[in-house]
Amino acid sequence: MASALSSCAAALSSLRARMPALLGPVKLVPALEASRVAVPFRSASSAAAGGSPVKAAAIAHVRAASGVAAPVEAQAPAAASDVAPLMRPYLAALLRSYLARNPTSQKGVRLVQEADGGRPIVQDHLAFRTFGADGCGIESLAKVFLDFGYVRRDMLTFPAKKLRAYWFAPPEHSLAGDETDEGGVGLRQLPRVFISELEVDKMSALAQEVIRKHTSAFNPLPSQVAAVSSVLGALPWATPSSTDYQTLAAESEYAAWTLVNAYSLNHTTVSVHSTQPHVFAQPAGSPGFAIDRLNDFLQSKGLTLNSDGSILKASPDGLLLQSSSVADTRPFHFSDGVTLSVPSSYLEFAERLVLPEHKHLKAADVQEQHRREGFEVGNADKIFESTSSHQLAGRQ
């Protein structure tokens, strides 16, 4: 136990030291210039946050770096309304860090924003990958969002990939359309959150040994360590060897990605239906959807899109339409001195169509709650392939 706590403390200390640099702006186009002004946001009153001294210290550090005033009694158990002012700065820091590390995603965001007249984009959802072992799985990061007032929704399973996932809905009143954007990174409304985990117990004995070598120091990994790791894109465990990475890649590319990216944002998702209607809408009487036109536009600008199954991924009801770029790559320096190119993150695009029961509404009256909600296993299974070696081989 003492060793585990020591490892947690060391990881948190190391991650904190690098946080301020990533809370600054990432320059894209003028409308994407980042602002450090925190936007207070009321979260669901029924949610509650834990109040451990370690968590309170982490919250105080993030508040200080984000310019958010600390509560009078930082060590007291915090209600969701107390940590709510951290929500937008935390999400904005996540997005800035992600954009700084992934030039293709930055380009995709810029292209959509410029086509949409410079309006800040809307994020449909954010997605993370985790190891379902030693308390490092879904729950290690879910608590961060539950404390912010998010609500756990459906579970999805992917037997062939040995994965499961939950998605989390933002506080209901955020869907009313808060037009404030935190630093121009796509927070005009709070995004859904999708967290998946590898079912480690279903992996081979060798793969389990490799994974637990890196996760066993925790059990569970404190949520504040997961949160800070996600902002910095830094590993909470020791740098792996190239042998460990290649061992996992041979069995599960998801596992290999998680080993070298940990809690970094796996992808963000542009809400296509939130762009102005004339931007990507098909001409009257033409077949297809706005996302089809967007996909053509992105490809014409040099983005390589995930073609697993097809460029467009559609739910069986035809109401959830998705596509994604192929992930960027980056050099990773392993502990044994080897440097390899590894997949980083990617950008997704989603169009949620109006539900049949709301088809009578005028376009101007349609809100997010009138559209198809949730996620689809068939779509997500193919979107996961955006980081696969097969898709990476086809990058332009």
Task: Summarize the structure in words.
The chain contains 14 helices and 10 strands. The strands form 2 sheets. It has an 8-stranded mixed beta sheet with strand order 2-3-4-1-5-10-7-6, sandwiched between helices. Strands 8-9 form a two-stranded antiparallel ribbon. The protein is 36% helix and 15% strand. With 396 residues, it is α+β, with helices and mostly antiparallel strands. Helix 1 runs parallel beside helix 2 (53-66) and helix 1 runs parallel beside helix 8. The chain has one domain: 2,3-Dihydroxybiphenyl 1,2-Dioxygenase, domain 1. Mean pLDDT is 81; it is low at 1-9, 14-80 and 175-179. The longest helix is centred in the first third of the chain and has 21 residues, at 2-22. It is globular.
Structure summary:
Helix content is 36%, strand content 15%.
Mean pLDDT, rounded to whole units?
A: 81
- The computed structural class is alpha+beta
Give the C-alpha Rg. Answer: 20 Å
Main sheet properties: 8 strands, mixed
**CATH-scheme architecture:** Roll
Number of E-state strands: 10
- Indicate the overall shape: globular
Q: Quickly name the level 1 CATH class.
A: Alpha Beta
User: Which fold name is given in CATH as the topology?
Assistant: 2,3-Dihydroxybiphenyl 1,2-Dioxygenase, domain 1
Helicity range of the residues?
25-40%
Q: Helix-strand pattern, N to C? A: HHHHHEHEEEHHHHEHHEEEEEHH
Instruction: Assess the beta-strand content as a share of residues.
Output: 15-25%
Number of domains: 1
Cα end-to-end separation: 49 Å
Poorly predicted residue ranges: 1-9, 14-80, 175-179
The total count of helices amounts to: 14
Spatially, the strands of the biggest sheet line up as 2-3-4-1-5-10-7-6
